Amino acid sequence: MDSVPLFDSYTERSEILMPNQTNNLGRALGGAVLHWMDICGAITGRRFARRQVVTASMDHVDFLAPIDLGDIVTVRGYVFDTGASSLDVKVDVSAERPSEREKRDTTSSFFTFVALDDDENPASVPDVATPTDEEAELRADALRERRERREAIQSQSN
Predict the structure, then answer these.
(1) Cα distance between residue 119 and residue 87, in whole Å
(2) Which value, to the nearest 10 degrees, does the dihedral of the CA atoms of residues 127, 128, 133, 135 take?
(3) What is the pLDDT of residue 1?
(4) How many separate helices (H) and strands (E) can be counted in the chain?
(5) pTM of the shown model
(6) In whole angstroms, what separates CA 98 from the centre of its chain?
(7) Which of 28, 30, 31, 151 has the most CB atoms around it within 10 Å of its CB?
(8) Is 124 strand, coil or helix?
């Protein structure tokens, strides 16, 4: 288990924003969106590591556009980097209203998961392979974006 192609981890799930997932303005509850992101990230990590994973951290999240009642919400994730037992996953969320032919990016974040062995101890994970140009570009973009976001947050706190 030396390396796994980035696309082997790719996960996409869609939901319709229902009334029990909205606030009093008829827009998505932030907690519902974060829940979907965490589940997508966990599935992504399990596909990549081929073992159970747990959430270790989630980077800063900004909600950039609202998700309205009835919108189709799509959550996409992929592993872009690994450590000894950790997996870094980029998760993007978009909303779509097909009747208006409208689609918009709503949020994204970076998660870190830790792979576990059968005794629930940290377990080693493979490296990320990027055998195609598209995979290499996705990985490079995620690494750059995460670095830039962390630098921006760091400079705001100084």
Answers:
(1) 19
(2) 180
(3) 58
(4) 2, 7
(5) 0.94
(6) 23
(7) 28
(8) coil
Measured distance CA(34)–CA(52) in Å, rounded: 20
- Walk me through the domains of the chain, giving residue ranges and CATH numbers: 3-157 (3.10.129.10)
* Tokens of residue 96, six digits: 């779509």
Q: Which of 76, 80, 93 shows the shortest CA–CA distance to 48?
A: 80
Residue with tokens 């870094």: 88
Tokens representing 121 are: 């101890």
Q: Which amino acid is at 33?
A: V
- Measured on CA atoms in the order 6, 44, 49, 84, is the torsion positive or negative? positive
The secondary structure element, H or E, covering residue 108 is strand 102-115
Q: What is the pLDDT of residues 1-16, one digit of tens each?
A: 599 999 999 999 999 9
**Separation of CA 19 from chain center:** 24
